[in-house]
């Protein structure tokens, strides 16, 4: 892989342009693409698997598959939707026990310090309260039935629209609407009015996790080249 001279994230690049740069071997474009989509893909994988380490492994595996296939991406669908489909398919296979011999191993993330910086208006008390509320929300999301949890993560947390969610999960749009409504209803019953406050911070994706996924993918690519 070659390295471009621009090391800063290129937010002005379109997704299709980035895909073409990655397919041409631009490693910086690939890093930009991964950092742009890692959180969504991680949350998607975790929605299916309910396990942090498994979700990270699936995201790395998905990026490796995507990297090998980007030369054929023509932009008929949104790149984010295409990536989510890859993650969903891999995660479902893992959940069904068809990927028990996964080769990627991610270092344990237990007890790591989250790379989060509170805003000046936040206080230790409010941070503690928000953190506890977020953990409570996450625990209730994990208890949702699989079919509701997967839709809720994409619609409620990642804020994909109905069409994108339906395309990513291979569901009719009417089914997405119904499952999202029922998921919200179940969570509201459990959390009352707290859901709307905490949903934006569910399954926090701090910088260290994004860095680990990027590093893991490049490590695998280097092993394949050598």
CATH topology of the largest domain: Rna Polymerase Sigma Factor, Chain: A
Number of strands: 0
- Based on helices, strands and strand pairing, what is the structural class? mainly alpha
Shape: globular
CATH architecture of the largest domain: Orthogonal Bundle
**Average residue pLDDT:** 77
What is the helix/strand order?
A: HHHHHHHHHH
Low-confidence stretches: 2-13, 98-121
The proportion of residues forming helix, as a percent range, comes to 55-70%
The number of helical segments is: 10
CATH superfamily of the largest domain: RNA polymerase sigma factor, region 2, helix turn helix motif
- The domain count comes to 2
CATH class of the largest domain: Mainly Alpha
Largest sheet: none
| Integer-rounded radius of gyration | 18 Å
Portion of residues in beta strands equals under 5%
Q: Give the termini separation.
A: 12 Å
Structural notes for this entry:
The protein has 226 residues and is mainly alpha-helical. The protein has 2 domains: 15-100 and 205-225, Rna Polymerase Sigma Factor, Chain: A; 124-201, Orthogonal Bundle (Arc Repressor Mutant, subunit A), CATH 1.10.10.10. It is 66% helix and 0% strand. It is built from 10 helices and no strands. It has helices at residues 15-23, 27-49, 52-69, 79-95, 124-143, 146-157, 162-169, 173-191, 195-198, 207-225. The longest helix is centred in the first third of the chain and has 23 residues, at 27-49. It is globular. The N and C termini lie close together (12 Å). Residues 2-13 and 98-121 have low confidence and may be disordered.
């Amino acid at each position: 892989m070659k390295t471009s001279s621009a090391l800063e994230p290129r937010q002005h690049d379109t997704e299709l342009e980035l895909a073409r740069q990655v397919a041409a071997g631009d490693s910086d474009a690939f890093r930009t693409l991964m950092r742009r989509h890692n959180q969504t893909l991680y949350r998607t994988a975790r929605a299916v698997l309910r396990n942090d380490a498994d979700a990270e492994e699936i995201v790395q595996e998905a990026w490796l598959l995507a990297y090998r296939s980007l030369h054929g991406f023509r932009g008929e669908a949104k790149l984010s939707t295409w990536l989510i489909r890859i993650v969903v398919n891999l995660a479902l296979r893992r959940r069904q026990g068809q990927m028990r011999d996964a080769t990627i191993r991610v270092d344990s993330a237990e007890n790591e310090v989250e790379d989060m910086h509170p805003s000046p208006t936040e206080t230790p008390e409010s941070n503690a309260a928000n953190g506890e509320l977020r953990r409570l929300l996450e625990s209730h999301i994990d208890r949702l039935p699989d079919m509701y949890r997967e839709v809720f993560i994409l619609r409620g947390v990642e804020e994909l629209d109905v069409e994108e969610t339906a395309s990513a999960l291979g569901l009719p749009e009417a089914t997405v609407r119904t499952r999202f409504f029922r998921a919200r209803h179940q969570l509201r019953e459990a959390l009352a009015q707290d859901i709307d406050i905490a949903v934006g911070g569910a399954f926090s994706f701090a910088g260290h996790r994004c860095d680990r996924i990027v590093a893991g993918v490049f490590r695998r690519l280097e092993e394949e080249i050598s």
